[in-house]
Design a protein that fits this description.
The protein has about 160 residues and is mainly α. The protein has a domain of about 110 residues. Helix content is about 75%, strand content about 0%. Helix 1 packs antiparallel against helix 4 and helix 3 packs antiparallel against helix 4. It is elongated and about 105 Å long.
Length: about 160
């Protein structure tokens, strides 16, 4: 009888140890996935923010040149340079669609709505248009908030 109780206790202790080990392994895997996601998103979100700022600045400069009477030439930025900024922003946008969360994609759309479209029509010519600077600044702050919440191992503030 003592042998049976001893074996039963050993089996129960072993089962508890295995269960605890599985639980710790599961928590470690979850933490590893979270860290990998943060590490994957961080450069993508940063590249989007940089490309959005460059496009907004370039577009605003070119728009000012073209709406002036008479138009300002030479302008600080050419239409070809605006086109390059447009392509860079579209590449960064595509990357956010690939690795970004729904919240990041939503914040990105809000930033994009402050600017002329990055996808061009059939002619391929850049559409020069107005950049709503107030909207852009508000939207980029929200994108920064999402970036902080999703890429920092210890997000700051109570806004995440």
């Amino acid at each position: 009888m003592d042998l049976a109780i001893g074996l039963g206790g050993a089996l129960l202790g072993g089962a508890i140890a295995v269960g605890g080990s599985i639980s710790v392994t599961t928590m470690n895997l979850h933490a590893d996935r979270e860290r990998e996601a943060r590490d994957l998103r961080r450069p993508v979100y940063t590249a989007y923010r940089d490309a959005a700022n460059e496009f907004a600045t370039g577009m605003a400069q070119r728009f000012t040149c073209e709406i002036s009477d008479p138009p300002i030439e030479p302008c600080a930025i050419s239409r070809d340079e605006v086109q390059t900024l447009r392509y860079n922003l579209q590449r960064a946008t595509n990357a956010v669609h690939i690795v970004g969360t729904d919240e990041a994609v939503s914040a990105m759309f809000d930033v994009a709505n402050a600017m002329p479209p990055t996808l061009v029509g059939l002619t391929g010519e850049p559409e020069i248009g107005f950049v709503d600077e107030r909207w852009f600044e508000r939207a980029i702050r929200e994108f920064d908030r999402v970036t902080n919440c999703e890429t920092s191992p210890d997000p700051s503030g109570d806004f995440c």
